[in-house]
Write a structure and sequence with these properties.
Elements (H helix, E strand, L loop, with lengths): L3 E7 L7 H6 L2 E8 L2 E9 H11 L5 E5 L6 E10 L6 E8 L6 E10 L3 H4 L4 E4 L3 E6 L8 E4 L9 E3 L10 E2 L6 E6 L2 H50 L1
Parallel strand pairs: 1-4, 2-6, 7-10
Antiparallel strand pairs: 1-3, 2-3, 4-5, 5-6, 7-9, 8-13, 9-12, 11-13
């Protein structure tokens, strides 16, 4: 697996003054961990973008601080972005202890081809995009591959409890969550046809009803006049 390396410097500007950093292409960050004193850092935005694109939140990063002789091994724990421009505002790094288990998310990648889709016209539906796991930092994978070639029949599904992620990795996600499932398309098509037929029938019924209403509306003025004449005759 490719090693991801990133350089950072200690940061002196804090609070609202960090806005000056962002305007000059520098992103504020913080480093913390179970055995780490919290440090405020700053990283060039371009280098940070490149690292984020590869690392996500489940890849270990070798973070070099100033003139340190050894890198810190970290995970990205939080990324703050502007709600409108989506530009980077702040990043949190978590320094791991390689001998202690951590909680992380590993993305799920679908591989293979389902016979139920290819031969029986089924529709593949994705469930979870990632798994919550508890494991040693060295056991973190870039992705968990799920082979859908085992889905041979419509309505068949792969659940979290069906996944084999290897020894030492504890899955925290709900074991009954659906990862991938093949559904039948036929029922959905029939329902759509029935809905269309109901709409057509409603239009056909409304046509003559509307014509009858228009005829009654045309006759109303005459009816009102004749009633007035009757009342006048009674008074006389």
């Amino acid at each position: 697996m490719q090693q991801i390396e990133l350089r950072a410097e200690n940061r002196e500007l804090l609070g609202k003054r960090t806005k000056r950093l962002r305007t000059s292409g520098i992103i504020p960050a913080v480093l913390y961990g179970p055995k780490t004193n919290s440090l405020t850092l700053q990283i060039p935005e371009r280098e940070l973008h490149l690292a984020l694109a590869v690392a996500g939140t489940n890849r270990l990063i070798r973070l070099w601080l100033d003139e340190a002789e050894e890198p810190r091994v970290v995970l990205i724990r939080d990324i703050q972005r502007d709600s409108i421009t989506h530009s980077l505002l702040h990043v949190d790094f978590y320094e791991v202890v390689m001998t202690e288990k951590i909680t992380a998310q590993i993305p799920i990648t679908i591989v293979g081809e389902s016979p139920a889709v290819a031969k029986k016209g089924g529709l593949l539906v994705r469930g979870l995009d990632s798994l919550d796991v508890h494991c040693l930092p060295s056991q973190l994978e870039e992705a968990i591959e799920v082979d859908i070639s085992v889905l041979e029949d419509v309505d068949q599904a792969i659940l979290v409890k069906d996944l084999d992620v290897g020894e030492g990795i504890d899955i925290l996600s709900n074991p009954d969550e659906v990862v991938a499932q093949v559904l039948t398309v036929r029922e959905e098509v029939v329902e759509e046809v029935l809905e269309v037929e109901e709409e057509v029938a409603e239009v056909e019924v409304l046509g003559p009803v509307r014509e009858a209403e228009e005829e009654l509306e045309a006759e109303l003025p005459e009816a009102e006049v004749s009633n007035a004449e009757v009342e006048e005759a009674k008074e006389q």
